[in-house]
Amino acid sequence: GLESRVEPSLKELVNISWGTVELVSEESEYVRTIHKIIESFVDVVRESIPPSYFTSFCDKFSRVFISSYNLALGRVKKISEPGTQQLLLDVYNLKTLIVKLPGPTKNATLSM
Q1: d(CA 36, CA 56)
Q2: How many CB atoms neighbour CB 85 within 10 A?
């Protein structure tokens, strides 16, 4: 399902050398990839199931994703100060995406 589609991006998060990050930029590439995967999958699911099931789907995915993200963060070894700030920005962007998931229509944008 959707969880397995975002798993490679979570592995990418762990493999980034956060201890050598020197500048904070926009969200990391792994966040952009997760955003694209979730947005395309959710658009299909939203059109395929009744709204009450869709909300349940979003709630379940959110719980699983947050748990998986926390586990991935726990596997990160060394983080520089700018790396910490970058991760904070990434978390904020992912949170914004997750909060917007159960939007009522396909046209509701999930853009960050």
Answers
A1: 21
A2: 14
